[in-house]
Amino acid sequence: MYIYNDIDQRLVDDRVSLFRDQTRRFLNGSLSEDDYRPLRLQNGLYIQRQSPMLRVAIPYGTLSSQQMRALARIARTWDRGYGHFTTRCNIQFNWVRLAEVPEILAELAKVQMHAIQTSGNCIRNITTDQFAGVAADEIFDPRPYCEIVRQWSTLAPEFLFLPRKFKIAIAGGKEDRAAVRFHDIGALAKLDADGQPGFEIHVGGGLGRTPMLGQCIKPFLPRAELINYFEAILRVYNRYGRRDNKYKARIKILVKDLTPEKFSQEVEEEWAYSRNGPNTISNAGFAAMEAFFTGPNYLERIPHDPASLDALRNNRIYSRWVARNVALHRKPGYRIVTLSLKKTGIPPGDATADQMDAISVLADRFSAGEIRVTHEQNLILPHVAKNDLFELWAIASAYGLASPNIGLLTDVVCCPGGDFCSLANAKSIPVATAIQERFDKLDYLFDLGPLELNISGCVNACGHHHIGHIGILGVDKNNEEWYQITMGGREGKRANIGRVIGPSFAAADIPETINTLLETYVRLRHEGELFIDTVERVGLTPFKLAVYGGAHEANH
């Protein structure tokens, strides 16, 4: 992983010092709330329903065990003993005290972490595939490109005050595991006819109150032009993006209004000024960055272990965990392990300080000290020897990190909702808990197969409800909390936005409504057919009829 040089470290240390002074002046009354607000937001500090909330950046979702231990220490010392991993591969601390935030930032700086640009109308945390560098289907490793883009975008004066926040995702596999078409810029790894690396560029994707799929404006961009081209996109957006209406300020609205063809033409014209310019990335520059992401020294041969096979055959719980939580690795004899943060009864994405310490130990012992964060709010150990799986599973189970539900119904993706967020219209965590408790039956979950369920507490869609196979959106009706259901959303190469099935439901009715949708799927599915494929084949009508009955017929 990338290691700070002296310039990086000085920059982060200086920011801590600056914010310490700004906070001191705000607390002694010499800085007004209006003046302090943009300063705290630039350092990831929000004021939420219960308390200030600090959002910490995890660039491209990669953490060292040392950094995870620091997060545990922060959770234990300055919060209430836990942190919340978000759908944007950040971690949030929900109960910090404002006066102590500079101390937290100083603690983060010791392990090369910060909260810069986790808020505000700027380029946010760069995200990527959680299997980057180890995926069996990878075209090339996207992490060096993520780091190059991170360095270019961090505190870049020209892009610190954009019309709205701006999100970039870069994926390197044949399968899109970074949901690139739902980002302001999404880049998919590609090789040209000569085998040279580059990217397919999508622009104008996003969720929120106006969900849209990104549009391809560049089928192949040579990797050397990555920054020049991104800069051209940002300049066009900065020039034409609306600042008079924040609901119409995202780049997706601009792309739609101009049309992708016209937007692409504007970018090409802007790019002509910078193409082959000073920001062109040299092969030597790439090589220097790639050297940070070479991975551990894998063993060429891992001896056969009969005990591992016996455990797989004879321990049903373990074999189910392997089936759901373990993925193929590009190196023979190794596997990628997903630690689940979706144990029933625990808010999705939450991890206690003890769990974080345990994860750091697991990472040191089994994964070369490296951890990844997923946008589905789980954690990854990317370098696990196959023979270590059973021992790892046993330890992870003891800490509540081995629920064998990755990609299943109870692997719920969920924002903090009305329990914490001041923007939320409704609570989302209790809805997630009710669903997990209702369907906490492994035989049934395995029979249903892969099924993604996402919950958001408001139209800002931090729970990514639009891209869940089943999505749940909290809405306010006359100061009461109701929940709207969408179906048919999906990520990946066949990305799609879910559609609303009908009138919303009370919270108490959600588990039974989900059960009705599942029963309908089981009745209609072909042998081996996935939930989302059945929905796409038959459409929403059978599901609406099952849920609303005659009311649906009367309305249609």
Describe the structure.
There is one protein chain. Helices cover 38% and strands 17% of the residues. With 556 residues, it is α+β, with helices and mostly antiparallel strands. The strands form four sheets. Strands 16, 17, 18, 19, 20 and 21 form a six-stranded mixed β-sheet that branches. Strand 18 (470-477) and strand 19 (480-487) form a beta hairpin. The longest helix is centred in the first third of the chain and has 22 residues, at 6-27. The model has no long low-confidence stretch (mean pLDDT 95).
Key features of this structure:
556 residues, alpha+beta, 6-stranded mixed sheet, 5-stranded antiparallel sheet, 21 strands, 38% helix, 17% strand
Task: Give a brief description.
The chain is of the alpha+beta class and about 550 residues long. It has helices spanning about 5-25, 35-40, 65-80, 100-110, 145-155, 225-240, 250-260, 260-275, 285-290, 305-315, 315-325, 355-365, 390-400, 430-440, 440-450, 510-525, 530-540, 540-550, 550-555; strands at about 45, 50-55, 60-65, 80-85, 90-95, 125-130, 170, 185-190, 195-205, 215-220, 325-330, 335-340, 350, 370-375, 380-385, 415, 455, 470-475, 480-485, 500, 505. Helix 7 (about 250-260) crosses helix 8 (about 260-275) and helix 16 crosses helix 18.
